[in-house]
Amino acid sequence: MKAIDFIHDTTFDMLPKHTIHEAIRCLVDTLGVAVGGSQTQLSVIIHNHVARQFGGDDATLWQDGRCVSAAGAALANGMTIDALDAHDGHKLTKGHVGCGVVPGLIALMQAEGIYDPKELLTSIVIGYEIGTRSGISLHSSACDYHTSGAWIALATAALGSRQLGLSKDQTREALGIAEYHGPRSQMMRCIDAPTMVKDGSGWGAMAGISAAYLAKDGFTGAPAITLESPDLASYWNDLGQNWYVTQQYIKLYPVCRWAQPAVEAVLALVQKHYLSMGQVSHIKVETFHEAKRLTSIPTNTEQAQYSLPFSVAAALVRGTIGIKEVTDDGLNDAQIMDMAKRVEIVETDAFNAAFPAQRFARAHLYLTDGNILTSDVTEAQGDPENKVSDDVIWDKYRQLTSPILGQERSNLIISTIRGIEQHSTVDGLFKLISEPI
């Protein structure tokens, strides 16, 4: 099977240089989000749970230092990334591959004593390719919109098969186990009622790693439909030629990507017309159906990150959205909460038709003087068609990490990643991200 050959036979020297650079960008971005997410209650709960229930000394919990099994580390570190909705993603998967691939891969490499930086970068690229294609395949073949964990399970099973040195027959079993046991959770349930289950990413990473270890022991799995169905072959035909790792978007704000076009539209009007919050009476947002479902007036960070009214209000009041805005500081801001209640959302046929390849919003600001200001049709920054620069990603990383890790440790991590191709080992990087805060 072409995908299995790609998993095992791809080497660093075979990869185009731009894919390696994208792997570095994705690694910096994902580890930055992990640091930010470590401050959430979700992260504290899952770290303590894994320390109790997933004993072992194979891998480490990031920003924590405790040793656990590889599957447990993937679960906790993956859910920690997912705890702060600022990670990269892909439009057609409607989800996020990096938040499972990066923690799953690092846990596997720690467990198997593999510290080759070229292998780290090669496997990141492989994980993004298998994960993204699996996600697109799943959405085209299943009636429900499933969380990222459903297809991240296949990506981490692929990486587990590679790091464990499984045969190609064993790899096929691992992928089948992962698809069968992966969390096919319905994403819109969490959109309508946001809680800590979020995008299922950590659970998918855990399922995939477990699948690889099971296959190594001789466990068998049902064939993975998303990889083997003839009806889905078109999604795999250009594997190794069309690189999905280069087609991920980067988020500038820690809220659902579906809310970000509306945020950008409002901020553009504020900047163009030099508006203050007090000049705005209420806001009307035109967008697509899925974004219209982001309606909650939040009482916790999970709800805040999945709330379009709150996101728009926070951007208007604070001029941006950062960790403070989606945690207690923003949730206790009476001005933000009051404005969130004055946001109206409507869907339009044109924006629905464009989704998911394009996510549009248009904002109308109703001013206290009776005027109405209307934005252009807006997409969020960071899409692959209009990539943000490296400096934007490095700045985002530092904004997320420096207040938590301190400037010295934050800079040491990013400088290590940016120069990773010149290093002989990534053991130092793994230790840096694992040290307790």
Description:
This protein is mainly alpha-helical and 437 residues long. The protein has helices at 2-9, 17-37, 41-53, 70-82, 98-112, 117-141, 149-163, 168-181, 187-192, 201-216, 225-228, 260-273, 289-292, 301-305, 308-318, 323-326, 328-331, 334-340, 349-354, 390-405, 407-418, 427-434, and strands at residues 59-60, 67-68, 280-287, 343-347, 362-367, 372-374. Strands 4-3-5-6 form a 4-stranded mixed β-sheet. Strands 1-2 form a two-stranded antiparallel ribbon. A hairpin with a 4-residue loop joins strand 5 (362-367) and strand 6. The termini are far apart.
List keywords for this structure.
2 domains, mainly alpha, two-stranded antiparallel sheet, four-stranded mixed β-sheet, 2-methylcitrate dehydratase PrpD, globular, 6% strand, 60s Ribosomal Protein L30, Chain: A, 22 helices, 6 strands, 437 residues
List the helices and strands and how they pair.
Blueprint: H1 2-9, H2 17-37, H3 41-53, E1 59-60, E2 67-68, H4 70-82, H5 98-112, H6 117-141, H7 149-163, H8 168-181, H9 187-192, H10 201-216, H11 225-228, H12 260-273, E3 280-287, H13 289-292, H14 301-305, H15 308-318, H16 323-326, H17 328-331, H18 334-340, E4 343-347, H19 349-354, E5 362-367, E6 372-374, H20 390-405, H21 407-418, H22 427-434
Parallel strand pairs: 3-4
Antiparallel strand pairs: 1-2, 3-5, 5-6
